[in-house]
Specification:
The chain contains five helices and 14 strands. By secondary structure, the protein is of the alpha+beta class. It has two domains: 7-136, HIT family, subunit A, CATH 3.30.428; 140-236 and 246-271, HIT family, subunit A, CATH 3.30.428.10. The chain is globular. Bound molecules: zinc ion.
Length: 275
């Protein structure tokens, strides 16, 4: 059977603090209490990379990237420079893990809100290195194709026409023009040019801002997923709702007929911004 499967240690999972609305089991945010953090790997101002205390997947190495010291903020609230620093810092550490030789695959993602699978409110991303899991089983390249919304400096933003699950999904695809040297000692360099990476950060910020305004509901949830596709970076921005039973039960992907409208509305939002 061609699937990735990994053990999830429920004895560790049970101990995890939960601070997201509807599942709160503690009033103390573990990411606000910086003095108590152990195993800090790197910092850049108020951005902190730390080993995850609750390494629930076995075997794996789980890291947490704390995005800010502002517990109740999120991507739309960040100054442009903060968002760019988070993306540069996160992508650099992701590439370091990918090139370390210790992992067959490394995932880099963000959960936000109760429907995203997250448990901590404080804005953060996660990096997980898996020694055994097959990266080829983690995506299909068709899932990154869609209606082009914006393209500049080798960075394309599109509205997915083959969503992984259903409803609206947005993709960011970095093409060859976004890179100077795509080969580092025979390995994929993956690191885009700084101005393309900064544009990627700006487009993530504006797309998340747009979807949060569009859906405008309490506890709106979304995920960001970063992928290494043939040595080049791609990002999927996915609003999260209850997962459709057609998908859960039968692997049927729903393609909403409103995709062109979503694309047009996001295009208008982006046009009003100057990059
Ligand atoms: Zn906090």
């Amino acid at each position: 059977m061609d699937i990735n499967i990994i053990n999830f240690d429920t004895t560790i999972g049970k101990k995890k603090p939960r601070t997201i609305a509807g599942m709160v089991n503690t009033n103390e945010c573990p990411f606000c209490n910086v003095a108590a953090l152990v195993d800090i790997i790197d910092t850049d101002g108020n951005i902190i990379l730390v080993r995850n205390k609750y390494n629930v997947m076995d075997p794996s190495t789980q890291l947490v990237l704390i995005e800010t010291d502002q517990c109740h903020s999120d991507i739309p609230d960040y100054p442009e420079e903060q968002m760019r620093r988070i993306i540069r810092f996160g992508v650099q550490h992701w590439i370091t893990m990918l090139n370390s030789g210790q992992y067959r695959s490394v995932i880099f993602f963000k959960n936000f809100g109760p429907m995203s699978g997250g448990t901590i409110q404080h804005p953060h991303m996660q990096l997980v290195g898996y020694p055994d899991l097959d990266p080829e089983l983690m995506y299909d390249t068709a899932e990154f194709e869609g209606i082009t919304i914006y393209q500049y400096k080798g960075v394309e933003l599109n509205a997915s026409t083959t969503p992984r699950i259903g409803f609206s999904e947005y993709n960011l695809v970095l093409h060859a023009e976004a890179y100077t040297d795509t080969n580092l000692n025979g390995k994929s360099a993956l690191m885009p040019k700084t101005d393309s990476l900064d544009l990627l950060a700006d487009l993530i910020k504006e797309t998340v801002t747009f979807i949060k305004e569009f859906y405008n509901r309490p506890n709106f949830s979304y995920n960001l997923f970063f992928y290494n596709v043939e040595g080049k970076l791609r990002v999927k921005i996915m609003p999260r709702f209850a997962t459709p039973p057609m998908y859960v039960g039968y692997n049927i992907h729903l393609r909403p007929t409103s995709i062109p409208d979503f694309a047009e509305n996001l295009k208008k939002h982006i046009k009003n911004k100057v990059f």
